[in-house]
Design a protein that fits this description.
The strands form three sheets. An eight-stranded mixed β-sheet has the order 7-6-5-8-1-9-12-11, sandwiched between helices. It has a two-stranded antiparallel sheet with strand order 2-10. The protein is an alpha/beta fold. The protein has helices at about 45-60, 65-70, 110-120, 135-140; strands at about 5-10, 15, 35, 45, 60-65, 85-90, 105-110, 125-130, 145-150, 160, 175-180, 185-190. The chain is globular and about 40 Å long. The protein has a single domain, classed as Dihydrofolate Reductase, subunit A (3-Layer(aba) Sandwich), CATH 3.40.430. The protein has four helices and twelve strands. It is about 20% helix and about 30% strand.
Amino acid sequence: MGKVVMYSSVSVDGFIADENDQPGPLFDWLSSGDVPLDDSGALKVSKPSYDYTRAYWDQIAVTIVGRHVFDLTDGWDGKPPSGIDHVVVVSHRPMPENWDPEAPFHFVDGVEAAVAKAQELAGDRMVEVAAGDVGGQVLAAGLIDEVRMDVVPVVFGSGKRYFGPVDAQHLLEDPDVAIQGNRVLHLRYQVRR
């Protein structure tokens, strides 16, 4: 089975969005360079960010998100973001009415079921878990192998926490990657078992 990785861009004080679910400048690094990150040409980053991020994106087969993120993004119009094969949505509610049942989105109840479904779909490839409430629940359940964060030089003061509702201590190993890009610091930690 592939790794299960918790990921997001994050403020230096640990928030992935403000109180109104707005990312503010958290994604500015995705337009702060001159190297196209994907075929659209809309995302341009520094060379160090490209090397790190492109290699990471190419490994992801499935992303796990909560229903809140799914609703905020309107389910990416049924097309998983960044070329990902499948999205697993943790939700106590059924898929939305008029949702295309052929879209590669899978609705499950609970984080353990989400990780199991994602790993089944991913095989040996990576499963990405969006940071926030669902990511924190997956971490608390002991199902995260690695934590990745793109730390952006901004202080929010309050908002949606990177680790969501985690209220217990979880030890990480020393960072095994620390790469400085334009307006971002890419960090990677293995979860201590």
